[in-house]
Amino acid sequence: MLYAHRGVTGEADAFLRMNGMSRAHFRLLYMIALLPGITLRELVATLEITHQGISRILNQLIADGYVRQEPDQADRRKRRLLLTDKGERIERVVFDRQAAVITRAFERIGRAGVPIFLEAMDAMVSDADRAIVDELRRSAEDLGRPKRPT
Question: Each residue of 90-126: pLDDT tens digit?
Fold first, then answer.
């Protein structure tokens, strides 16, 4: 499993490093892309990271122009997080690099193996994470985006 993980993330991690980022930056960009308008509190809960753990990275992404904040229309105290065009571009490049690795793996195992792989991946999701995974799938479908690995 370690080597498969390296295979999926290796090229993407190198690209992120070239852009002064890490996988932690990508995790935030990815979640904001999947759930546009997510609040900081929701992001903390979704990623199960402390507010302190997210703040430094999020502030850097905002300062560098990858993420913007907008006040919530119903509760002006809340800030909604959205990707800027720049943020959308880099999130897409990194996602596409990881997706290319997965696509090559699917080509190797053949069409018949893909549903089995996807079912196995889904079976590994913990009961505690099931609700958020289902929500992410619904959000992606609502946005008209192709289903992404979650």
Answer: 999 999 999 999 999 999 999 898 889 889 888 998 8
Distances (CA, A) of 103 to 19, 64, 100, 114: 24, 31, 5, 10
SS3 50: coil
Domain ranges of the chain: 2-142
pTM greater than 0.70: yes
Q: Which fold has domain 2-142?
A: Arc Repressor Mutant, subunit A (1.10.10)
Q: Give burial (CB, 10 Å; 0-12/13-18/19+) of 21.
A: buried
Total Cβ atoms within 10 A of residue 82: 16
What b-and-e string marks burial along 32-50, b requiring 16 or more CB atoms within 10 Å of the CB? bbbbeebbbeebbebbebe
